[in-house]
Write a structure and sequence with these properties.
single chain; alpha/beta; Rossmann fold; 7-stranded parallel β-sheet; 17 helices; binds adenine
């Protein structure tokens, strides 16, 4: 495939908050690296084999210490990589500074950037004329399809990190516009079992606690959505002593939540009971006007789903007489009714807005999947059909094996007798 120069590559090297933050970022990136042995091994191999030589790559990810290790691994593999934020509130400014100063990786991301800046950075990423796009939420791919269709010719493919992005890619495929391969990193077992469940579970509570410093024991916490992220959040909230209510629209997941020991009810019924509400559904307006109206005075609401649309903040604003900043990432909406409702992190991902996102130990596997998915795209350039592709099961298993090895854990292996038994259908009762 020849990459046609469509627009000149943009000259600007970076847009970060403050390059003098680089030493702090460097130190924190090094700390995260202690928990990322799998990605480290992949980086070392990439440095030898240079699978991305001549490849222009854009990563639209939360700019964290963990993403730094992914970007460094891709660059070690020869990629001409550029990084932008996948959310206006999730960037760690010191990390962005260190990537620019210490690793010469162009970064366009500032914590608290407005939507216009965020959208401008997406266009800057496209100006890089990527051959590979690593997306988290599918904003870069969606923009390319709407505004830069001619750049499809440059693309080897894309990889997608999160459930919301996969939902969007499926809609693109259904509408016939996804005309290149997209690797579904989210659905790898070594991704969603750990990142979505234990990562979201821990980091969501971390964000809530950092923002509010409230005691969770004895509180009634309503978790909206019982996908992997909801399961992790509910599990960890219970572990902290909260009474957890789950809301769901999927009957199977509702049964799962019940059998996991949670109460399940509609949001309308949960609204007056909850002290704290966490949305993790991927859908819009899961908490809306009628729910705010039924909530207790002082109820706290936050979101840990990808986009800031799960809580209908416009409806809350319409009822508010005043909005006060009461702590970092904590705003109190005083309502005409005399009640107040507290919103955390402006309804954006609370785990990344008020805390640091998922811990490195799970991102190690998520980003090992991303790194290997990019290599898979390059190795199979021109051979993969348009549409969504799973991570090959051998890669998923290899990541798990490397993780176990790094943890110093060994497992059983099948005896030849067992292998024979598992492959036969003649031996029964
Ligand atoms: N998504 C959730 N947590 C993350 C992290 N720590 N780094 C990058 N992306 C994330």
């Amino acid at each position: 495939m020849t990459a046609t120069p469509i627009r000149p590559k943009q000259d600007q090297k970076h847009e970060v908050k403050d390059l003098s933050l680089a030493p702090l970022g460097k130190q924190r990136i090094e700390w995260a690296g202690r928990e990322m042995p799998v990605l480290r091994q992949i980086r070392d191999r990439f440095a030898q084999e240079k699978p991305f030589q001549g490849i222009r790559l854009v990563a639209c990810c939360h700019v964290t210490t963990e993403t730094a290790h992914l970007a460094i691994a891709l660059k070690a593999g020869g990629a001409d990589a550029l990084l932008i934020a996948s959310n206006p509130l999730s960037t760690q400014d010191d990390v962005a500074a260190s990537l620019v100063s210490d690793h010469d990786i162009p970064v366009f991301a500032i914590k608290g950037e407005d939507n216009a800046t965020y959208n401008r950075h997406v266009r800057i990423a496209l100006d890089h004329r990527p051959n590979i796009i690593i997306d988290d939420g599918s904003d870069v791919v969606a923009t390319l399809l709407q505004e830069r269709k001619e750049q499809i010719a440059d693309l080897i493919g894309t990889t997608e990190e999160t459930t919301t992005g996969i939902v969007r890619l499926r809609a693109m495929f259904r509408d016939g516009v996804l005309t290149f391969p997209a690797v579904n990193v989210n659905d790898a077992d070594t991704k969603h079992f750990f990142d979505n469940r234990y990562g979201t579970g821990q980091s969501t509570l971390d964000g809530i606690i950092r923002a509010t410093n409230i005691l969770l024991a004895g509180k009634t916490i309503v978790v909206a959505g019982y996908g992997w992220c909801g399961k992790g959040t509910a599990l960890r909230a219970r572990g902290m002593g909260a009474n957890v209510i789950v809301t769901e629209i999927n009957p199977v997941r509702a049964i799962e939540a019940i059998m996991d020991g949670f109460r399940v009810m509609p949001m309308e019924q949960a609204a007056p009971e909850g002290d704290l509400f966490v949305t993790v559904t991927g859908n819009k307006h899961v908490i809306r006007a009628e729910h705010f109206a039924a909530m207790k005075d002082g109820a706290i609401v936050c979101n840990s789903g990808h986009f800031d649309i799960e809580i209908d903040l416009k409806a809350l604003e319409a009822e508010a007489t005043e909005v006060k900043d009461v702590r970092n990432f904590t705003q109190q909406y005083c309502l005409k009714s005399g009640k107040s409702i507290v919103v955390l992190g402006e309804g954006r991902l609370i785990n990344l807005a008020a805390a640091e996102g998922h811990p490195s130990a799970v991102m190690d596997m998520s980003f090992a999947n991303q790194a290997l998915a990019c290599e898979y795209l390059v190795k199979n350039r021109g051979k993969l059909a348009a549409g969504l592709h799973s991570i090959p099961v051998e890669l998923d298993q290899e990541i798990a094996r490397l993780k176990l090895q790094a943890m110093g854990i060994t497992m059983d292996t099948l005896t030849s007798d067992q292998i024979e038994y598992m492959n036969s259908w003649t031996s029964g009762t």
